[in-house]
Write a structure and sequence with these properties.
Structural class: alpha/beta
Strand order of the largest sheet: 1-14-7-6-5-4-3-2
Number of helices: 13
CATH architecture: Alpha-Beta Barrel
Order of helices and strands: EHHEHHEHEHEHEHHEEHEEHEEEHEH
Number of domains: 1
CATH superfamily: Divalent-metal-dependent TIM barrel enzymes
Largest sheet: 8 strands, parallel
CATH topology: TIM Barrel
Helix content: 25-40%
Number of strands: 14
């Protein structure tokens, strides 16, 4: 079985071409040195290209030069993350990460710019790529009246991707990444939109799903059911992001650990309370809202991307990884070589020190080993 595995580079701060280049010479190079033979062969990455970086490269005419430097160092990419548009580290992000959304021309133009850059990073002989993007927008910010415009922008992006294939021979597809409290948080919600606006359109082949295991875990989905549903609906999964959430068991003590160690001012941590049968009993838009509710008697699932190899940590907190493990088991049994596999632990920088590895590169190495062992590819 041959499945390509990479890490998402949205774990690295930086919104300029040169800042992004430092990750290739720093932590990613350290990671390659830890992996037998990785320095002697091309190494896959999942690039995060923000709007400022894309604009700077295109305005200066340096896309080819920048991507050549990356490839000369021995890296390539089949996937790009075009979800975060702007700064994603070191300052408050919260709901700003969902803007501009897919109702705007800014999101459309940014995404097509990322596609042009990704095309330059795709290796010869590998003609399928994927761009992950936000699930339409934040649900309360996208009224139903804007859905036709949103769909039109999606199809305009698909038209640009078809043109790119015609010109360059590379097929890049969009993967809309379902997330709690967004326009599409469940597979059923995305399928309903897809069936109304996308299915049957001549450009439908360029539109699919980026399936994030952490996000499906947090909404209380039955492990593995989402991929089955999408397959039954005939909706392509173009990318799978492998990630785990945090589970705090019933009782106040574990929730106080969340309060002390997992609240931060940067990211939104949507939280659900689930009963013993896994049914969602309450949900909150962010961890502080959950803590204020003082509903201690149920397990909580918190949207906080923790390293995928974690099990139990910090006095009873656990990795919420049933969805992750179900997806890995399915991939082990039914490989999907055209689907990009990407480990995404962007919140590493705000993890408590007790949960971090000796270095970011060491964490990435442990995550890769965990996934490869689960897939039977070590």
């Amino acid at each position: 079985m041959s499945l390509e595995l990479c890490h998402c580079m949205n774990v690295f701060p930086g919104t300029t071409p040169e800042e992004k280049m430092r990750a290739f010479a720093g932590p990613l190079a350290d990671l390659r040195h830890m992996l037998p033979g990785a320095m002697s062969r091309p190494f896959p990455v999942g690039v995060w290209i923000d709007a400022a970086t894309a604009s700077a490269l295109q305005a200066s005419g340096r896309v080819g030069e920048w991507t050549a430097r990356i490839r000369d160092q021995g890296y390539y990419a089949r996937t790009a993350n075009a979800f975060p548009y702007g700064v994603f580290h070191g300052q408050e992000v919260k709901t700003a990460v969902y803007h501009p959304d897919w109702t705007t021309p800014e999101r459309l133009h940014f995404t097509t710019a990322v596609a042009d850059i990704l095309c330059e990073l795709m290796p010869d002989g590998q003609d399928d790529g994927a761009i992950s993007t936000l699930p339409g927008g934040y649900k309360e910010h996208v009224p139903a009246a804007k859905l036709p415009a949103l769909a039109a922008n999606m199809l305009a992006a698909a038209a640009a991707l078809r043109d790119l294939r015609d010109r360059r021979g590379k097929t890049i597809r969009l993967g809309f990444e379902m997330e709690p409290d967004c326009l599409w948080e469940s597979v059923e919600e995305f399928a309903a939109f897809y069936n109304r606006y996308i299915r049957g359109h001549e450009l439908a082949e360029f539109i699919g799903v980026c399936y994030d295991t952490c996000h499906q875990e947090v909404i209380g989905a039955r492990p593995g059911a989402g991929l089955d549903y999408l397959a039954a609906q005939g909706i392509p999964v173009v990318k799978i992001q492998l990630s785990a959430a945090v589970r705090a068991p019933a009782g106040r003590a574990a929730k106080e650990l969340l309060r002390e160690h997992f609240q931060d001012r940067v990211y939104l941590h949507q939280t659900c309370a689930v009963d013993a049968a896994g049914k969602v009993r309450a949900r909150w838009r962010d961890l502080p809202d959950a803590l204020a509710a003082e509903l201690w008697d149920h397990d909580w699932l918190c949207h906080f991307h923790v390293p995928v190899y974690l099990r139990e940590f910090m006095g009873g907190l656990r990795a919420a990884n049933a969805e992750l493990l179900a997806v890995l088991e399915r991939l082990q049994q039914q490989p999907a070589p055209q689907c990009v596999l990407e480990i995404e632990t962007y919140s590493y920088n705000v993890l408590p020190d007790a949960v971090k590895s000796a270095s970011l590169a060491a964490c990435m190495q442990q995550e890769m080993a965990f996934v490869q062992e689960a897939l039977g590819t070590r």
